[in-house]
Design a protein that fits this description.
The protein has helices spanning about 10-20, 20-40, 55-60, 75-85, 125-135, 150-165, 195-205, 225-240; strands at about 45-50, 65-70, 95, 110-115, 135-145, 170-175, 175-185, 185-195, 210-215, 250-260. The protein is α/β, with parallel strands linked by helices and about 260 residues long. The strands form two sheets. It has a seven-stranded mixed sheet with strand order 3-2-1-4-5-10-9, sandwiched between helices. The chain binds S-adenosylmethionine (SAM).
């Protein structure tokens, strides 16, 4: 599963899929809101767990925080290193290779942790959640940006696939959600569509109570489109975010938890 994240083409493809100029506005708002909801004090250290090419580490560092970025992929970390240096933020961001299912940090190491679109790609998701819950300090916050199984997008996709007789069956149906395995750049890419309430219950059993849940991107169908239809959907995503459409219809949600 790790191989797909070490491919240069994966980084390039995700840049095209997710970081369209119209979407940049959304990410700027969403990361700023996340930091506000987490109530991170000025100058604090924030862990970006699964930082990928570092785009959100850069946003957090620009907001005045110190960032510890970790990722399993050396290719991603290499991109992050260069992008952070290009933004003149190398003194604010420290990068380290690490697997979320086996964190080398001591218990209660961080007051503020976020993980954006990462555990959705980890088959052993319980281990990653256990590890994240372990390293947050009592009174600290954990933010998770996750896919939502019940999203409108998924209902449309399931209906289209049913009509085309190409159903998409999950490999795993667990308490936490449905797990799928896709092919990307000739490698396997795992993807969970989570049941948000089950994630909330799972973390509650580990001492983290839900503090906030809100809409992320309304739809990801834009990735499969071009030109005007794509721009229209991206603008709709921004609109839905600004006007806080209900989280349960959106393809991604932000969850913020507080540790007792
Ligand atoms: C979709 S990208 C998101 C990257 C970044 N958070 C962002 O939003 O731009 C998923 C990232 O998770 C990382 N990842 C996947 N499995 C991981 C694991 N077990 N431990 C640490 N990072 C992992 C991948 O290398 C990749 O950089």
């Amino acid at each position: 599963m790790k191989a797909v994240f070490n491919q240069q083409t994966t980084v390039e493809q995700w840049d095209v899929d997710y970081y369209h100029p119209i979407a940049i506005k959304y990410y700027d708002w969403a990361v700023t809101d996340m930091l506000r909801i987490m109530d991170v004090p000025p100058g604090a250290t924030v862990l970006d767990a699964g930082c990928g090419p570092g785009v959100h580490s850069i946003r957090v560092a620009k907001a005045g925080y110190q960032v510890q970025g970790i990722d399993i992929s050396e290719t991603m970390l290499n991109h992050a290193k260069h992008r952070i240096a290009d933004s003149n933020l190398s003194d604010r961001v420290n990068l380290q290779p690490m697997d979320l299912t086996q964190l080398s940090f001591a218990n209660h190491s961080f007051g503020y942790v976020f993980s954006w679109g990462v555990i959705i790609h980890i088959p052993a998701v319980e281990k990653a959640l256990d590890e994240l819950a372990r390293i947050v300090k009592p009174g600290g916050k954990l933010a998770l940006y996750l896919t939502n199984r019940d999203a409108f997008d998924h209902k449309i996709e399931n209906m289209a696939r049913f009509m085309l007789s190409k159903p998409l069956s999950p490999i795993v149906r667990s308490q936490l959600g449905d797990g799928y395995c896709y092919r990307m750049n000739h490698e396997d890419l795992w993807l969970w569509r989570f049941d948000g309430d089950s994630i909330v219950n799972y973390l509650a059993e580990r001492g983290l109570r839900l503090y906030y849940r809100g809409i992320g991107e309304l739809s990801e169908i834009q990735r499969r489109l071009d030109g005007f239809p794509r721009r229209l959907l991206l603008r709709l995503n921004n609109f839905a975010y600004r006007w806080r459409f209900p989280a349960n219809i959106a393809t991604t949600n932000l969850f913020v938890f507080e540790k007792k």
